[in-house]
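3.2 Worked example (two chains)
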Amino acid sequence: MEQDTTLAARLDRWARARPLLVDGSLAGVIWLVFGLPGVLVGGPAGLVVATATILPLALRRRQPVALLVWSTAVFGLQLAVLPIPLPANIAQALVIYTVAAHVASLPVRLCALATALAGCLAAGFRWSTEPEYTRNALVIAVFLAVFAGLIWLIGNVVRGRETNMRALGEAYARLEEGRLQRVRFLAQRERVAAAREIHDIVAHSLTVVIVQADGAEYAAEHARPWDRADARTALATIARTARTALTEVRGVIDVLRDPEAADDPGGPPVCLSDLERLVAAVRAAGLPVEVRADPAVFERAPAAVRFAVLRVVRESLTNVLKHAGARATARVAVEWTSEAVRVRVADDGAGASGVAVDGPGHGLGGMRERLRALDGVLTAGPRPGGGFGVEAVVPVAPPGARR
């Protein structure tokens, strides 16, 4: 059954793609079956009328209104010259069906029905015989009218189906376009997220590398004697930071290559040791950092929240390294409350000089976008006593409500 349906669908598509060929072939078959016998019924005049009635069917779907006018005129001529019906009159039924099925204008379709009913009445009286002429005429007219009305109704049903199919096709096309737009939107959002992630990684790593390199350059130029242990420490920090950055950038690129890994962009869940390594790298760059972190955050919070906490701390400390000045001190606090994880990063340096507090895209704006996806809130700005502060609040389910 499924194969028959598939074959029928293919034949239907093939016929719709070649209407002139199909209608021309149909007209030829009808002429052979119903047109040629007209010479036996009505002589040469019958053959001429049958040919004039059938052959224009080759253009029935291209010019249905013109075909209706032509068919009406030929049928009137037939009633005038021939007192009997012809087998070719079956073509008039096809004309009625064509107008009802393929003409969108309701007045034109109603005109075709009225013309058909009038023709049925005229044919009834033309083809009636004695002795009960009027009764026979009415019987013939009613029979032909019922037949013509059914053909007209079938054509309208087919036209309605075609209209519904076109509407469904347009709706499907709109849905498909909406799906493609959503796919493009999601791809764009992934690219933006990847760009933000790479910016955070590279900005932090390069900041540490630059601070270490500047310190090593200054020591090499001014210190007497040159301390190889300090140089080794600076170079080791640079190498470790660069390797870490390279690994994290590769992780982001792997996420872009494998969309199924997009829900776990950071690989294994962030733990307290990741925060400690981050702080150690910043301290090695010369920035004193005081840390107070609740271990429960890195044990109970969802992986996405832990990841966001680490990124907020890293971006904030990177800003301190870049903007707070040489004698600044940073303090980091990560707390677990009953409803949220709260992160505070504050410094006592030069303040907000050079920091884009409300800018979109990267930096603090990138942190806001990351927290917004978790229904979190980030506030940042100069502190009343000097320095700069960043505070992030990320809501989480309380431990008792977690499954």
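3.2.1 Second chain
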Amino acid sequence: MIKKIKKYATTNTLVIFGIVLGVLFGIFFPELALKQKMIGTAFVYFLKMLVVPLVFASIFVAILGLGSIEHLKRMGLKTIGLYVLTTALAVTAAITAMDIFHIGKHVSSSGLTYEKATTLAPFSFENMILSFIPSNIFHALSEGQMMQIIVFAILFGVASLYLVPKQKEVLNTLFTAISEAMLKMAEWVILLTPVGVFSLISYVIAEQGIDVIFGLYKYVLVVIGVIIFHGLVTLPAVLRFFTKINPYSYLSDVREAPIMAFSTASSAATLPVSMRVTEEMGSIDKKTASFVLPLGATVSMDGTAAYLSVAVLYIANLAGVTLSLGDQILLAITVVSLSVGVAALPSASLVMMVIILNQLGLPVEYMALIVAVDRILDMCRTSLNVTSDLIVTKIVDEFEKRR
């Protein structure tokens, strides 16, 4: 255990150095920073390479390990309920912050355009539900359609519970071996984290520039402020309420996962790291982590929900539109509902923003002003998404251990 602690402490220290050096490199050597993007991209690709087989195998093994439909139902309902709760709290914090600060009311927004907005199909609840069902599982696996993969893995696991013991043992041995092999590969990729983080951060700074952040500093500060508040106050309070353990000690133990999420801006790419640190550093049972974390990488979007709420209200202020209490409640319900449909990929929330703006009758063109800082904020909100996953996983694990 001491060796593992030293290993992760060393990795975290190097990652922090990578972030700092990446910022400086992006500022002072932007041309070189832009040219070395391939290094960071390769790092993210290595992580994403592991996601599909890891998610499928982990969920299947976790369901087989639960042993019964009743156990699956109990854990599943708790997991979904907690994810909805934390997302709702994130949206509430974001709307409250915007009602207090009222940013965006005196910002010039003339001449803005956003070409992609007109090409998006209108939102349909029916289409969203159908999108969860894989018409061809091999296509879903090849395209990395995470929700479809999770749905099939759950159904496959449930069906396997009805097999004779000999058949279940064969499947369990096979997919357990696949899961372990993926986690071993993840260990190798994690060793590249400091270099990958340096490359990704330096490229973002070189491409976006510090001036862009300064130009929208009030908006950026409110988004980051809400994310920090939810991550350091609300989520720890939820963990403390349900488990009575020290939330900050736990978050310190598993801090490598949020740091990785910040650098990659992808919950899916961070999943192998999250699974490893929760088991080794967070003392979470493997069965719990294998079920809750892959589900959270797709349906838990606290950071995204908070960001969307602030962004939509900011755009409303830019357009001179005052949203009533009823409109804000509708916004909250819509964001919480749609957060399930946000893909665990960088900047997918922009698509959701278009849907919400259209529903509230707000001008989509105003998105052009905030897209410039989206990548920076994407890193922050993804880190919060993963932090929420870690909190919910710990709560569910404590519930299971009590039984």
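3.3 Remarks
Residues 109-121 have pLDDT under 50 and may be disordered.
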